[in-house]
Design brief:
Strand order of the largest sheet: 2-1-3-4-5
Order of helices and strands: HEHEHHEHEHEH
Shape: globular
Structural class: alpha/beta
CATH class: Alpha Beta
Number of domains: 1
Radius of gyration: 17 Å
Helix content: 55-70%
CATH topology: Rossmann fold
Strand content: 5-15%
CATH superfamily: Glucose-6-phosphate isomerase like protein, domain 1
Number of strands: 5
């Protein structure tokens, strides 16, 4: 096996998927950033959730907002629902794993807040329940998915935003998710700081 060629192929594939995603996602990404910036301006917060690598993305995103991205600015209100092991395990133990995010959304979410729901397949049951809880709390959902968008795409409202990466490869979808999150962070900073 020629690992150099295999690795080069991954870079090529990743680049091609990112370019295709740029064509499809640039406009909805700008809309998602505008929605989140408006939420933050109105003293709302962004709640983020996902499983596995998507949990890491939720944490990465909230860290970029709470601390800083590339520009100096005050902290922004963002919470990753994936980080409190006592909360996660108590909900999973007392109820079910499907409710680990939705119960937190019910407890923390307020009308006008935004839920960033991340799932490469769009079919994670606990993320779907979090979306329903967000809708019940009069929150808006930004869904970050891939493949066909799965069940999440079918559960979005007109006011929600669907960011579906045009790929069937989990690795490529995750790579584009990171670029999307960085684009949103940068755009939020530009909006809030008045950068042209």
């Amino acid at each position: 096996m020629d690992l150099v060629n295999r690795i080069s192929g991954h870079f090529t594939d990743s680049t091609q998927v990112k370019l295709k995603a740029m064509e499809v996602l640039a406009t909805p990404l700008s809309e998602a950033a505008g929605l989140m910036a408006a939420c933050l301006k109105n003293e709302g917060k962004i709640l983020a959730c996902g499983n596995g690598g998507s949990a890491g993305d939720a944490q990465h995103f909230s860290a970029e907002l709470l601390n800083r991205f590339e520009m100096e600015r005050p902290p922004l209100a963002a919470v990753a629902l994936t980080t409190d092991s006592s909360t996660l395990t108590s909900i999973a133990n007392d109820y079910s794993y499907e409710e680990v995010f939705s119960k937190q959304v019910v407890g923390l979410g307020q009308p006008g807040d935004v839920l960033l729901a991340i799932s490469t397949s769009g079919n994670s049951p606990n993320v779907l329940k979090a979306m329903q809880a967000a809708h019940d709390r009069s929150m808006t959902v930004v869904a970050l998915t891939g493949k066909s968008g799965g069940a999440m795409s079918g559960n979005l409202r007109d006011s929600d935003i669907n960011l579906c990466v045009p790929s069937n490869s989990t690795a490529r979808i995750q790579e584009v998710h990171l670029v999307c999150l960085h684009c949103i962070c940068d755009a939020i900073d530009c909006i809030l700081l008045g950068v042209e």
